[in-house]
Amino acid sequence: MSSFLTLSSGQMLPLMGLGTWKSAPGQVKQAVLTALDCGYRHIDCAAAYGNEQEVGEALAVKLGTGTVLRREDVFLTSKLWNTQHHPDDVEAACRKSLLDLGLDYLDLYLMHWPMAFQRGTDLLPRRADGRVCYDHIHYTETWVAMENLVDKGLVRAIGLSNFNARQTDDVVSIAKHKPVVNQVECHPYLSQTDLLSHCRAVGVCLMAYSPLGSGDRPWASPDQPCLLQDPELKSIALRHRKTPAQVILRWQVQRGVACIPKSVTPSRIQENMQVFDFSLSDEDMKQIELFNRNKRYIVPTVERDGKGVARDAEHPYFPFNDPY
């Protein structure tokens, strides 16, 4: 089986990449260096992660003059943040990521969320009561501005992140440069089977963030099930002499879903790449599909009236009110 997906743009997207969300300053540079040494050829970044400059330091070491790797050997992704959805802000945001990463172009630039926040320099602009200040710029307006980045050669392709099926269709229907990817939370407890089928039908590849269930998410509570401790998953892993993480990643690969597991631990970075030397049986694949609980972990939450609620649920373009 190939270790790449062919995007509608003709680009080859590595099925396994390194995620950098939640990678702390002082750790992410070494994580990227380790990943590139282990054979990773996709690094997933975002302006909102606050660490693109440090990722750029690692890229300068590995892609500099006289190094073995060339720029074209590594697929690099970044994302447009919610406060920069105004068409006048899109190019400047992209150029800032390019500057921080030390690159002349990005292979892929994603709209991080369909929701626009108030323009400005704050990552989360807030009102006096603590609620986020929203903007109602429609994501299709932002998309048209992102298409200009392709025309100018700043990015090779553009895509979506955290878009539901209906929102994906909205963009596809008006696009001159069609989205090549929709990057969403996806793991056996949230298999996204319907969204995967829908995206395939319109020529959009699915990319899974938090493919291992994001056990280190800041808002995790002890009563939530831990995917990597699932006894059925452990049983499958034991049968294949692999780790539960490797089984999950292999499941995604066999479904044709690209993955960007995050780690700063060298042994785990290496382990996560070792998924191309075994296969899961049809029975294994069906068993893992049955794990689905439609359990979404990555929803920013806030406390209101003593309860945890989705922070952005009142935004008109909040994506998770639709079934998929």
Quick synopsis:
With 324 residues, this protein is an alpha/beta fold. It is built from ten helices and 14 strands. The mean pLDDT is 95.
Structure description:
It is built from ten helices and 14 strands. It is an alpha/beta fold and 324 residues long. It is globular. α6 links the parallel β10 and β11 (205-209). The chain has helices at 28-37, 52-62, 90-101, 139-151, 165-174, 193-201, 231-240, 244-255, 266-273, 282-289, and strands spanning 4-6, 12-14, 18-19, 42-44, 75-80, 108-111, 116-117, 134-135, 158-161, 181-185, 205-209, 258-259, 301-304, 307-310.
| N-to-C series of helices and strands | EEEHEHEHEEEHEHEHEHHEHHEE
- Unreliably modeled segments: none
Instruction: Please tell me what the overall shape is.
Output: globular
Give the number of DSSP strands. Answer: 14
Structural Rg: 19 Å
Termini separation (Å)?
28 Å
Mean pLDDT: 95
What strand order characterises the main sheet? Answer: 3-4-5-6-9-10-11-12
Beta-strand content bin: 15-25%
Proportion in helices = 25-40%
Largest sheet: 8 strands, parallel
Category from helices, strands and their pairing:
alpha/beta
How many DSSP helices? 10
